[in-house]
Design a protein that fits this description.
alpha/beta, Arc Repressor Mutant, subunit A, Rossmann fold, three-stranded antiparallel sheet, 48% helix, 15% strand, globular, binds S-adenosylmethionine
């Protein structure tokens, strides 16, 4: 049996450093004990519509104005607002009558339910009962021969579960749509518009309710768009000018077009399925001048301390582990592997101002 003896700090400096680390850990531990509280209170704020009320009011609101607008008990709302102000989600502003009002910040505007920059639907998806249940089962999926976390919680994988639960399916589609509208598609349009030069027709594989493709077709008006997703998803998709909705299964066949756009779909799948989907994409485009435009996170192989989005990428990778059977975020080497196995001859990567990058893959 291996005996591990605790190493004692020897020098004075080592002892001081150890004491400092212990003191930090005494504080830091509470972030783990109550790690869920911040997002739970934000979710509560979204559900109550606190940011919406302040926005509709057209300026800062006092506690009594907010309480009556939202039909909340002032004593409870005061405690919620105190927490949110402490976490810099709303700001306090003195009124001319000597009381305090609450005003919006850049981050609270992301929590307006239907605002231009709203990410509320994404917060509600990731912190709703279905996804939280999969996080609770995370360790089950990590074990050898373990059941993937979402399946352990719900008995089936996320996409089969969504077929049978229309309201969960809508929560997913709304969340994906706001991520596309606020973050990813504007970064693509600004960061690499040349990717869409000469593309007459474009299929968005796993395009959800068609929001991303609608934005692309609006920015690049020469494109005819085909939004392709599972039948129960596209039947709820919004009609949008220049976009046709087609239901189907990407493992069976994908509509033909000049190019395929596939965003945050391949990361839901393990390598074998990913290669299968990429082969179907390759079959759907012209051999001579077609391409597949992949929008995904690329994990770095080396630590890059200057990259402020690295921790987000690591979180998304954990989310793939929690929410899908074999999904994962891939390194460049892993992308080289799946694209090579799917028969693509070459690819290039474009980095944009987002968590995601754009990979152009050619047959
Ligand atoms: C993570 S979402 C990405 C949505 C969208 N591309 C985005 O980034 O906003 C994955 C999408 O893949 C779709 N999907 C899952 N299995 C599919 C299949 N077999 N055929 C077509 N679409 C599928 C889901 O319905 C969902 O809309």
């Amino acid at each position: 049996m291996e005996v591990i003896t605790e190493r004692k700090a020897t020098t004075k400096e080592e002892q001081e450093q150890e004491q400092e680390e212990e003191a930090q850990a005494d504080v830091e531990i509470w972030n783990y004990v109550f790690g869920f509280v911040k997002v739970a209170v934000v979710k509560c704020a979204i559900e109550l519509g606190i940011a919406d009320a302040i926005e509709n009011h057209g300026g800062p609101m006092t506690l009594s104005e907010l309480s009556s607008a939202l039909n909340c008990a002032p004593s409870c709302l005061h405690r919620v607002m105190r927490f949110l102000v402490h976490n810099q989600i709303f700001k306090e502003k003195p009124t001319s009558h000597g009381s305090i009002a609450f005003e919006q910040t850049a981050i609270s505007r992301r929590f307006i339910k239907h605002g231009q920059n709203s990410m509320a639907a994404f917060v509600l998806l990731e912190n709703g009962p279905e996804m939280v249940a999969s996080w609770i089962n995370l360790s089950a999926g990590v074990q050898v021969n373990g059941t993937p976390a979402f399946k352990a919680a719900h008995g089936k994988d996320i996409w089969s579960y969504a077929v049978g639960d229309g309201s969960f399916s809508k929560v997913i589609n709304d969340a994906m749509a706001c991520g596309a509208r606020v973050v990813t598609v504007p970064a693509i349009i600004k960061g690499c518009p040349e990717v869409f030069d000469g593309v007459g027709s474009l299929v968005d594989v796993g395009g959800g309710n068609g929001t991303a493709l609608g934005l692309l077709v609006k920015a690049f008006i020469w494109i005819r768009g085909i939004n392709f997703d599972l039948p129960h998803v596209v039947c709820d998709a919004e009609e949008s000018h220049g976009v046709e909705n087609v239901g189907g299964d990407m493992f069976q066949s994908i509509p033909m077009a000049d190019a395929i756009f596939i965003m945050q779909v391949l990361h839901d799948w393990g390598d074998d399925e990913c290669i299968e989907i990429l082969k179907k994409c390759r079959e759907a485009i012209p051999k001579d001048n077609g391409k597949v435009i992949i929008v995904e996170t690329i994990m770095e192989e080396e630590e890059n301390l200057g990259d402020e989005l690295k921790s987000v990428r690591l979180k998304i990778d954990m989310a793939m582990m929690a929410h899908t059977d074999k999904g994962k975020e891939r390194t460049l080497k892993e992308w080289d592997y799946v694209l090579g196995q799917a028969g693509f001859s070459r690819h290039n990567v474009k980095h944009i101002r987002a968590v995601h990058s754009v990979i152009e893959a050619y047959p």
